[in-house]
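Structure first, sequence second, as always.
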């Protein structure tokens, strides 16, 4: 973009802002339609609280940053 064009464009934008008084209206949020949209959505999956087909052999619980634990 040529420098003189950029200068004119910035001047035009500044002028428009000055004329409008820079009064921006606060955004308004439309009411949520999630209950109507999601009422007909279903998801079929096994219950996460029930036992699955795999067994747990070992379980290590922690943040993974403990240098004293060989597991990490």
């Amino acid at each position: 973009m040529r420098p003189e064009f950029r200068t004119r464009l910035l001047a035009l934008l500044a002028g428009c802002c000055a004329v409008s008084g820079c009064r921006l209206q606060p955004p308004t949020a439309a009411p949520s339609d999630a209950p109507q949209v999601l009422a007909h959505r279903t998801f079929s999956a096994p219950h996460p609280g029930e036992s699955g087909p795999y067994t747990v052999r070992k379980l290590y619980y922690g943040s993974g940053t403990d240098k004293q634990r060989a597991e990490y």
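Margin note: The CA atoms of residues 60 and 71 lie 7 Å apart.
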